[in-house]
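Model: Ready when you are.
Researcher: Fold this.
Model:
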Amino acid sequence: MIAGNAVLESLWLATWTGSIAIIIVMLLRAPVRRRFGAGIAYALWWLPVATWLALWLPARVIEVPVQAGSPALDPVAVTTVAGTSDPSFDMNTLWMPMWLLGVGLMIGMLLWQQRRFERALGRMRALDGERSAWQAESAAGLPAVVGLLRPRIILPADIDTRFDDKQRGLMLAHERIHLHRGDAWANAFTALVRCVFWFNPLVHIASSRMRHDQELACDARVIAAYPHARRAYGEAMLKNANPSLMVPLGCHWGITHPMKERVMLLKNAIPSRGTRMTGALLVGVAAIAVAAAAWAAMPPRQMQRSSEVIVKSEGRDFQASFDIAMDGGPSEDVLVVGRYGEPFTVRIADSETGSFELEGTVTQASANGAPAYRIEARLQRDGKSVGNPVMVVGAGKQARIKLGDEAANGKFAGVDVNVQIGDVDPAALQARDQAEMARHQVERTRVMTHQAHASAAAEAEKAAAEARLAADEAARAADEASGMSAVEARAAAEAAREAANEAAEAASEAAADAAQAAAEAAVMADEARIERRVIRKTYPAPPAPPQPPTAAMAPRAPAAPPPPRAPGVPAMPRAPKAPPAPATHPAPPAPWVASGKASLHIEREVRNGAAPSTVAKAVTVASHAQAVAAGGRVLTSDQAASLGLEPGYRWVDMQSLISGHASASLRIESAIVTTDKDGETPRYIGYIR
């Protein structure tokens, strides 16, 4: 169905663009013939051909950016079929068979005309001394050129009696011009156009006008070659003015043409060569103009271009700004914040230009006594190495890496990288974090919308299946009603109508559910929280947690008095004392997720259907009391032990503050901080007792 609709759309575009070109030619052919000659007027028929050729060119491309909330799938169309009405009918399913039927009928009619003409020729014999001229047994519709792969000049049976020697020579000269110019192929193309656009009357009118201009152009060529034979040439045309048969794939002499006009044009002077060249140039310019107009009328092809940028770096010693462009396309602005001597990576995956990877390190250097940076990079394009540049860049100065070739059209084919290195700019860092948040939000919204449309499609399919089931039940009920009484038949029909109505209601509910799901996805995307976390950590030597007393240092408990001895029982001898056991130390505690004194800076921006609020002033929680006052929840020893937290510390759960729905900024300085499993959000803070 989609392919059929595309064919009909292309056919409609070719119809109205070609019709405009045909109207232009019909308006210009007479004045152009008077000014520049019949040959230039015949060349005007290249204008509609140019418009149709232009439609085969690739349409212009418009890049459509990926927007948040844009559906990943086409909207789901749900057709509701009422129980008392006929199903909806798409007219496109009718136009395509009708057009194909018309094409087939037109081809059949032209082939029948061609076959009728060839059968009427009878047996043919080659003329002496003429390799491409043959004489037929009949005279209807002759002389003519017949055939495409092996075209031949067919002369009438009475050529020797109807025409004198001079007229026969002029007639053969006329037909040879048709052969040399390939006019039989031009007429075959015209027949093909008539088959494709059989429904357009302008095409059929243009076909006869084109063949008339074709004959006039041949007449002009003959008169230019034999300027003193105008009278004999005119008499020969008048003797063959009423042919009775027409050949679609060939060239007639005189068929469907006003003979009076042709004879009168024989009196006109032949334009000079310069005049004809000027006319040909103007026709070429007009053909290019109409072709460009037809191409511009084509609907543009929309291309959704996607680009993903991944940056991996650690540290905050320097800030490098990269402006990366591939193959002269749009550039990607990438900000890298890293540590001296540590490698960083920038990966770009573009749906049009391919993939690009930049790996490098930055170290401090000097240039002419001024601070500078040394960057060593390795560039890859689609997995293949394209260069390993090394350069020294002054602080705040721009440098450029350009690897590739200049194409013939002036467009650069390769990688163009502009880089600027300097100290870390907090504002630029904040802008990078916000751009990263926006990218994640777009991806999340796209996934949510995709899920909503998939759910709607499933509901619609389910409703359609229920409607088909109801229709089958209605058909069975109708079959059963054929053998019932009138009362039973009416009851069965009523039951069938109720089943169809229920199916229609189910389809309507599915459509409503689909719309609601899409609306909920949009609301969820709009209300999705945007979070930004910037975590800074420093780890000096971790303080030792308070150790429990060892066995050697533990105070000795007083010895219990011996039990009283029963009367008459002798005292038991004492066992020798065992040597004292050596002092032992407990095993070191199990390592925790993060230990040592830490300085963390957490910033959060939360948007819930409104613009993000201003970030509050940072709150410092350097003690247990400050953490509790900031909103932390005190954990008991049992709760800390159940969470696997190290004993010997006073633990505070900061999740209530970190996950709050208000804008907050928190600075934590403590002896020990643990993080969640994702390693991103610090939750539990421990303070030495």
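Researcher: Now this one.
Model:
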Amino acid sequence: MTRQRSLRPFKGKAQRDVAVSRPAAERRKLFSAALAAGLLASLFALGFCASPLSAAPSASDTVVDDGWADTEAAAVEGLPIIPEARGKRLRIGYFERAETNMRKKLLIPSLERLRSAFPTLEIELVKLSEFELQLGAIKREFDLFLVSSGFYTYLADAGSGAIWLATRKTPVATVSEKASGSVFIVRGDSDELLELGDLRSKRVAAIEKSSFSGWLTALAAIGNITQYPNNFFGKVFFTSDSPEEVVEMVREGRVEAGVLSTCELESLQLQGLVSQDEFRVLGERPVEGFACRTSTQLYPDLVLAARPDLPAEWGKIASSTLLGMPLTADGWGWTVANQVNDSRRVIHRYAGVMASADGDRDDTTDRYKYAMLIGFLILAGSVGYNILVSRVVRNRTRALVQIIDEKSALEESEKENRARLSQLERAGIVSELSSMIAHELRQPVASLINYADGLQLYLGGRGKDPMIDEATREIAEQAERVSEIVERVRKYAKQKTQVHAPIDLCEVTKRAFVTFGSSADRTGVRITSDFADKAPIEGDPLELELLIVNLLKNALHAAKASPEGKGTISIRLFADGVTSDDPRWVLEVRDNGPAISDAQFNDLAHPISSDKLEGLGLGLSICRVIAERHAAKLRFRRVEPSGLCAILSMAQRQTDGAGSRPKAGEHEVG
């Protein structure tokens, strides 16, 4: 079954997906058997005479792996299989930061051995930085590559299919499984930093974030102090594969400590770049059989690995050639130290640092994920609670506003009802008083009429005087009128049915105009009239006269407050709807008084108060009653820009009381 995984290059480089044809464990198992067979064949061909027997690895030290069965089986799925005639070229990549003479002491002799084993191939040795080499290995730009044991386990476990060939043997370590680590250095005059725990929240410089021995093994040592080593330091500076710059930053005090790979400090001291007492190793661990100073656990040395799609025969030849190569006089060589479990544990824990330099993983997130989750839940709960409270407050506010509006409407209605009740009470009182006054005035008015008639008879016998005759006649007529009014009031009080007689509305209007003129102060108000010749109707002339006089008095009161400064009143009586089935006489009383509001205009339908100081608010009510008794329609219409027009419409003949509908802008009363 094919396994597919994603490999991401470091420092945000482009990532590439690779696939392996079989699991790494199965591949290593297959490789072990093939490696043992190749090694025995190589030793037999050399006749055991190339070096002392102790210099070459024995069969018991060899890890059995038969993974080089054939080229096609080792090829990565989806990638082209490299043929035997592979451009006649074999590329080997390596990195070396400090001057350790590895190229001269180990790589050049190994290169000569490989050229002898591959006489037809052009073998190229390429030096790069550790990061560039890691990136090139992921992109498969090299056939063989010398990388840290940690990066090798990363490639193998992540699914790239990197194949172990050999492990480097250096003079400074007697055991290659313990030959690589990190060292913390501080200035020699620094007294406050005595152990690794003192570096908490301090500034630290290191070589490369993806470097196994230059950073990851240092994090593993800090992991023994804290659960979150990536958050242990205050700030970390990476110098991009330059140990000299790390030393310089510590020397200048830009950082409190620096991280180097093991043996890099000793190499700088041998070159004269660092004095013996200038720096002090923090958290030093004495390790038997290791000549360099270290602050961390030691891990396997550099691993020479092959890309998985390399021809199987090439891998077997290269592995057997290098493992069969004797140690140099200085102790350089290759060995079968491939126990990389410690390196694998470091990579598994800190793979996020190596494989996610683009920030996909962050220990800060891992460290505070539960706190962030709790904070998010608290924030979400607060937002939800605020939304809920806002909704409750909004609903209750809406209900409160509705209650207040209803209460205001009820109060307004109650106010209007109280005003109407007060008006009815006043009307009842007036009705009672009118009945009483009519009863009491009946006798004095009758006496007044008798005295006026007797005075005329008495003066008539003593000579004719026109003025006296006119005065006595006027007194008699006014007394008769008062008597009729008193009798009418008595009939209202007794609720007697009124009998209408044929009358002329034009004459009634003229008589009302004369009565109005004799009892009202018209100073500053101009009055115009336009009457029809005759306007025959059926009705009570006295009631209609009272109605018209009341309308004229209201118009006069409004005209005196005209915004134009000069009041005018116009009276017009004309026929309307002569050609219709319901011809009517229309009486208009118009003034140019101040404009009235909508509320005032609506109150005209049910008058309950008066704008005049001496008024009781009963005038329009009486007019409405009189209009109803005559089957007439009393309307009001606002006049632009100011003023009001009262319209009385009466049938020209007796009808069932049906009337016309009010026009737009009119208000009907009665």
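Researcher: Key takeaway?
Model: Confidence is low (pLDDT under 50) at residues 1-85, 353-361, 655-670.
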